[in-house]
Amino acid sequence: MRIDNKSMYPEKEEKLDVRKRLETTEFSCAPERMLYTKTRFKVKAEHPVKSIFTNPDETQHNLIIVKPGAVEEVGMAGNEMAKDPSGITKNFIPDSKNILFHTKLLDPDSAEVLSFEAPSEPGAYPYPCTFPGHWIVMKGEMVVE
Question: Is residue 86 part of a domain?
């Protein structure tokens, strides 16, 4: 399994990793089921979070954490990207102000570490896969307390 630790902000990740309140969660895709193995996890508001997302499936998948109530808008935008030949080069990540954090589109047998600071507002933050058509069943929620 190849893990991609590359980030646009590696210095930010290093700062998050050394903070005392770091919350780590690991999950993957259920092979041949188009589901995440973890459909819910809890974090504390404004705590650093390190999510390790692996893809053992034969299909590409991503993980997009969105604002509460935005899963349908972002999922439908991902579906629309299938009409655009550049959709795959954009990792099927729609251009939306409702997207808070995301991985790239992961190839089979790969992984990515997603490091971020949890939102300050408590609530349920959905995380769909925005590969076209996946978001309808492949989703979960990050609960910020």
Answer: yes
